[in-house]
Write a structure and sequence with these properties.
alpha/beta, 4-stranded mixed β-sheet, 14 helices, 24 strands, elongated
Length: 423
């Protein structure tokens, strides 16, 4: 898959426009299964995960036209099983199961793959399906859901989630859009990407309230009553945060355009705590990191907490802070594969509590070397560290980075970085 070669030492200065959010586009594409008529989804990032999602839709029988950042979908699904070769490629493949259940009343999905971030159980997904009236059978490699009702109709339910899981919240919404009566999800996840999926569904005729709060209410609509529309995917708040960290680690200044500033608030607040100047405008964010970076303590959490998807990138930034910082990872149990690679570059990081707590001693003298990206956000953290490192860094495993960043090389080179892709 080639490598990134990054020559460190250049300041990041300039402007970058932020494209569509991967974590919003994927569930929106899954939701298209529920909707008759043509759907045109714009501002879709042209990344490998989206291409897998398109393959899933085509494999299910839908007609899909994918041109750059626009996906147009028509037709109806003709099968109810997500093929193993696609399920294994990305975690969010399971979200397509909720949409299949909502459309057909039964479906199957092989256990999902994606970044190796530790055990990511699907118990909450199963709980939601069970409470909606499905029989859930877990085999060695796949999940089979059958409707207990002879006519395969779905019936609304009150569902309490022990943990505000994003994927489970999305799956329950998708599976219950056509359910009879009301479905109420209590302790629902509140991430902006869920709001975006719900906004799309409502634009197509769904009746969903409360997205972005801890109680989501889905009023079932008549089967097959949703109609297609044109929709624009929200900007990617994690890409915005990643580029903020890239500018900060080089003591640069950067304007991010086409963003939703409110969605980036949890990241913004920690950057301000680090002494980085952050200015919010209607659709843009400006940061200036000329002053020394201060130490901070960070605890990742569900929205509106600090996003786990920014943990690795912020850790790279904190290698250049004055003093000792701490990061506590509360979402994934194995989101630490970037740590050993940062240490190879000269970072002073101690991992404790089985990779859940990290001590980062700042002002490390980072030096370029050969490192390996083993997951998406960890790979982004290596890019950020390499921007501040002395000499040249080679990053392999870039296929992980390309799962979530459409043009990280072009974006950063435009504002002063020196990155080459070599196959």
């Amino acid at each position: 898959m080639g490598s990134f070669f990054i020559l460190g030492g250049n300041k990041i200065n300039g402007e970058i426009s932020i494209g569509g959010a991967k974590n919003a586009a994927l569930p929106i594409l899954a939701a298209c299964i529920l909707i008759d008529g043509e759907k045109t989804i714009k501002n879709v990032p042209n990344i490998s995960d989206v291409r897998v999602a398109v393959d899933i839709l085509r494999d299910l029988g839908l007609k899909v036209l994918h041109e750059k950042n626009t996906v147009t979908i028509s037709g109806k699904i003709s099968k109810n099983t997500i093929s193993k070769k696609y399920s294994e490629k990305m975690r969010s493949s399971i979200t397509f199961l909720g949409a299949i259940l909502g459309k057909l009343g039964e479906g199957e999905c092989y256990f999902p793959g994606g970044c190796p971030l530790g055990e990511r159980p699907i118990e909450l997904h199963k709980k939601g399906f069970l409470e909606l009236g499905f029989e859930v059978i877990e085999e060695t490699e796949k999940l089979i859901c059958k409707n207990k009702n002879d006519n395969k109709s779905r019936i609304g339910a009150n569902i309490f989630l022990d943990f505000p899981s994003v994927g489970a919240t999305q799956n329950i919404i998708l599976a219950s859009v056509y359910a009879k009566g009301s479905t109420i999800i209590t302790n629902a996840a509140k991430e902006p990407e869920i709001v975006d999926m719900v906004n799309f569904l409502n634009a197509c005729g769904a009746r969903i309230k409360g997205a972005g709060t801890d109680e989501v209410i889905i009023e079932g609509v008549a089967e097959n009553s949703l109609k297609g529309c044109e929709y624009i995917v929200m900007p990617d708040r994690i890409i915005a945060g990643t580029y903020m960290a890239a500018a900060a680690i080089t003591n640069g200044s950067l304007i991010l355009k086409d963003v939703y500033p409110y969605d980036v608030y949890p990241i913004k607040e920690k950057f301000i705590n680090m002494g980085i100047a952050v200015t919010i405008n209607k659709n843009s964010i400006a940061i200036n990191a000329e002053k020394p970076i201060r130490k901070v303590k960070i605890r990742t959490g569900t929205h509106p907490g600090f996003p786990t998807d920014m943990q690795a990138q912020t850790m790279a930034l904190l290698t250049q802070a004055e003093g000792t910082s701490e990061i506590e990872e509360n979402i994934f149990e194995a989101r630490d594969k970037h740590v050993k690679e940062l240490i190879k570059m000269g970072a002073n990081i101690t991992s404790m509590l089985n990779g859940r707590h990290f001590i980062i001693k700042g002002k490390a003298n980072l030096k370029g070397t050969k490192v390996l990206a083993e997951d998406l956000r960890g790979g982004a953290s290596l890019v950020i560290a390499a921007l501040a490192a002395e000499g040249k860094t080679e990053i392999k495993g870039i296929e992980h980075i390309e799962r979530g960043y459409e043009n990280i090389v072009g974006d950063l080179n435009k504002v002063g970085a020196n990155i080459r892709f070599i196959n």
